[in-house]
Specification:
Elements lengths: L8 E6 L6 H12 L3 E3 L18 H6 L2 E2 L12 H16 L4 E6 L2 H8 L10 H14 L2 H10 L1 H6 L5 H14 L17 E7 L3 H17 L2 H7 L15 H8 L4 H24 L4 E4 L6 H11 L2
Parallel strand pairs: 1-4, 1-5, 2-3, 2-4, 5-6
């Protein structure tokens, strides 16, 4: 590690969905005798498990995890909330270990901890409620059109399949009269720990095969029943997401079951592509192919740590 006076290290494991991040994180945590912070924006929610590919009970027993089943779907939990709480958890881990691991496919949440978020002025909650109502009634398209006109810079960068972030951008403009892009300085906050970034990726065809297989496994494990069990929460942002939205459409009768399954696979592949686009912008990430045992990654980390 560089001689910067920092003696604690956060190891970040990033990559697209279905790539094997959880397995690697657990192997590395066991090797380093440390704990894991999950930075998956859907695994926070205790009401949904199958469609979010949470670690199994056996995996959770193999290494201590934070931010798994930590919140309810009905709780508003922002990226800023995660940044604050994750840094507090990290301080606790570092009080007893020299290393910690953070794993996930949500690039914004990983960046919140490693780089920090820009401070934004408060917005009008009534405007948020009005935009959420518009989204429920007319879908995402009118939100996208208005955001593109109001703040084209933010619109070009934001995940255009994420209703919460699209609404947030338009909400900010309507509340303040200013573009949220003007406040996004991308200035990196100094953290009191070193950071090692590991990325996992595969040949696209192999990755897509993994994704399709995972969707089949989720359905075999009871994803449809899980979706039926959270129907009363369907208007919450946590459920406006791949795997749930398509099966709600099936239950509504607007899609056949086969079409819904095909759409889940297609949308998951698109999601993986967007994840990779995000992560490839980070030049600090060292890329590996997933493998077990994770000897190459462990060797790389040990070398940096001076073990």
């Amino acid at each position: 590690m560089p001689d910067n006076g920092k003696n604690k290290t956060l190891i970040v494991i990033a990559g697209p969905t279905a790539i094997g991040k959880t397995a690697l994180a657990i192997e590395l945590a066991r090797h380093l005798s440390t704990e894991i912070i999950s930075a998956d924006s859907r695994q926070f929610f205790r009401e949904i498990s199958i469609g979010t590919a949470k670690p199994s009970p056996e995996e959770l027993a193999a290494a201590k995890h934070y931010f798994i089943d930590s919140h309810s779907i009905t709780t508003f939990f922002s990226t800023g909330d995660f940044e604050k709480q994750a840094l507090e958890v990290l301080a606790g881990i570092f009080a007893k270990n020299n290393t910690a691991i953070m794993v996930g496919g949500s690039g914004l949440y990983l960046d919140a901890v490693t780089k920090g978020l820009d401070e934004l002025p408060d917005t009008d909650m009534q405007i948020r409620e009005e935009l959420n109502a518009l989204f429920r009634i007319e879908g995402l398209e009118p939100i996208k059109e208005r955001l593109a006109a109001a703040d084209p810079e933010y619109y070009a960068k934001v995940d255009q399949f994420n209703p919460q972030r699209m609404i947030r951008g338009l909400e900010f403009f309507l509340s303040t009269g200013k573009k949220v892009s003007a406040f996004l300085t991308n200035s990196k906050k100094e953290r009191p720990f070193n950071i090692i970034k590991i990325g996992l990726n595969l040949d696209r065809d192999l990755l897509y095969q993994r994704i399709n297989h995972r969707v089949d496994l989720m359905l075999a494990e009871g994803l449809l029943d899980e979706v039926k069990g959270v129907t009363q929460y369907r208007d919450y942002n946590a459920l406006k997401t791949v795997g749930y939205a398509e099966l709600f459409d099936y239950l509504d009768g607007t899609l056949t079951y086969e079409a819904a399954v095909d759409k889940i696979k297609q949308n998951t592949r698109r999601f993986a592509k967007r994840q990779l686009t995000w992560f490839r912008r980070d030049k600090d990430i060292q890329w590996f192919e997933p493998q077990s045992p994770a000897t190459a990654v462990i060797r790389y980390v040990d070398q940096i740590l001076g073990k």
